[in-house]
Structures are given as C-alpha cells and as structure tokens.
Amino acid sequence: MKQVLHYFLAVFTGVVFGSLANMLIISVSTMVIPLPNGADNSSLESLEKTIHLFQFQHFIMPFLAHALGSLIGGAVAAWIAPNHKLLVALTIGVFFMIGGTMMVIQLPSPIGFNVVDLSLAYIPMAFFGYNFFCKFNKIYI
How far apart are CA 68 and CA 40, in angstroms? Predict the structure, then answer.
C-alpha cells in the first residue's frame, strides 16, 4: 500500500510540475512571439476563430510548452518513483499526450503542427526527462 501511494505521489507531482512548466511557457509566449494582428487567445472560442491568422512562429512556443512540460514532468516523476522509473515517466508523457490529443480535436490547428506535436512533444520528451534524471544520478532502473 505504501508503495502504491509512492507511485501515485510520483505521477501526481510529475503532472503538477509538468503543468506548471507548460503554463509558465504559455503565459510568457506572447511576450516572446507576439500574436498576429487581430488574433485573440483569451478563450478557446476566440482562438478557434482567429487561428487562421497564425503563422509558423506562433506554434513554436506551444510546442516548447508541451515538450518541456513533458520533459520536466517525466524527470520529476522518475526522481520520486521508488522503482519502475521509466514506466512512471512515460505515464506522464501519456497523460500529457491525452490532453494534447483533446486539444487537437477541439482546436483546428495546422495538421503539420498536430503531427509534430503529438509525435515528438509528449512521450519522447518524457523519455528524455527520465534519461536526463538517470544520467544525472547515474542510475538505470
């Protein structure tokens, strides 16, 4: 029972830290790359109406937010998990990928971004988070 709680804590904390990283990057993204004129990202409905104004550079920060959220979440989860660290880190990637898939369904973004985002930002980055943690701590469990 104690070990199950430890795994739950690892996954929960990984999701929280990954989500915080994601939200931080998204919140500063318009300072780094301003929205196109006329675009509004204050709600999903307004974003849906103005997403046709977005160009390639406007999708860089969302991709980075998704990728770094999964990487940080995977690394934190691997750090906390007692063992089966790779499985716990990949669980974070799957969790965020489910959220990314839901956004792809809700928001009509370009197919190229959707393919790159869903295939590279979630599970591979959670795997890299696990690898960075293990290389830093020199453990492979």
Answer: 24
- CA dihedral of residues 118, 124, 126, 130 (deg, nearest 10): 180
Rounded Cα distance between 99 and 122, Å, is: 10
Q: Look up the pTM and report it.
A: 0.89
Burial class (CB in 10 A: 0-12, 13-18, 19+), 34: exposed
Burial class (CB in 10 A: 0-12, 13-18, 19+), 63: middle
C-alpha 84: how far from chain center: 21
Alpha carbon separation from 55 to 31, 60, 84, 92 (Å, rounded): 16, 10, 41, 29
pLDDT tens digits along 11-52: 999 999 999 999 999 999 989 988 888 887 777 888 888 888
Phi then psi for residue 43, to 5 deg, are -150, 165
**Token pair 């995977």: residue:** 74
Kindly report the three-state secondary structure assignment for every residue of 17-86. HHHHHHHHHHHHHHHHCCCCCCCCCCCHHHHHHHHHHCCHHHHHHHHHHHHHHHHHHHHHHHHHCCCCHH
Question: Considering Cα of 45, then 27, then 30, then 70, what sign does the dihedral take?
Answer: negative
